[in-house]
Amino acid sequence: MAQIALDAFGGDNAPYEEVKGALLFVEKTKNKVILVGDEKKISQLIPKNFSGLDIVNAPERFGMNEKPTEILRSPATSMSVAAQLVKDGKADGFVSAGNTGALLVLGTFVLGRIEGIERPAIATVMPSKVGGTVLIDAGANLSLKPQQYVQLAIMGLAYAKEILGKDNPKVGLLNVGLEEEKGTDTIKEAYDLLKKKIGNAFYGNAEGRDVFYGNVDVVVCDGFSGNVVLKTSEGVGLFISDMLKQSIKNSSLFQKIGALMMKKTFQKFKETLDYRKYGGAFLLGVNGIAVKAHGSSDSQAIFNALNVASSGIENGIVKAIKGSV
Asked: Is the pLDDT of residue 273 over 90?
């Protein structure tokens, strides 16, 4: 049974959505959650006699616009306290919808880097035709050295194997074309290193569309490119959903009847593109489970982020990475 610390004052809708998501998670999974934040405000949102939730008081909140490194001078913030609970062995992992840079700082300097990993990275699962593609890095490191792409690939492979259950996952290097000679000097050197270091697990170059087509199981890239892919996919999902609604609204009566008959199909399609379904992104390469939820997460997204953390704990993702580096 996992015990997960949740930064209850990290997201835009805190603490209501965090507490609501935690209640749902405990109710459905029987795991435990430690809510970290203003104890008085949190306790008002928890039903009487509800078990499985603990509260650790943290009177301060770290803002989205604050300089990430300032988190190290803010030990009383909810995010800092949540990370420290993991460091002290009082929680198996922590989740936050707060400042991404601050989460990276806490992971690196509080939990500490895994030996052999120079840059911890954000890894998230993108929807694909074959059940999901691991995108790493999705925003932690704006630029990388060639050897660091290999480290990302190792972590991504561990994710695909241990959590997604893929037997022989393939890694693609995000590039502007499939040809070996494409890309910057850094990308070309990274290509050669990946080919040498991970052998048959290296698919070769991958284009943006390959993330969703399922041609590869892991896509490695710098955090700048990865975050653009992530945010673009979110925007495309919302765009398609809105356009479908508008088209149905402007259609004829018979077309509207047809759309009504297709309602379940449209709903399933919408869910496939909904970022909330995937919940949270791992910060991989650190000595502990740290999961970043979307800043605007509602209770369902928080629930899913807690599920992501739980899967990392149960499947030993940190141990798997340590054994692969």
From this structure: no
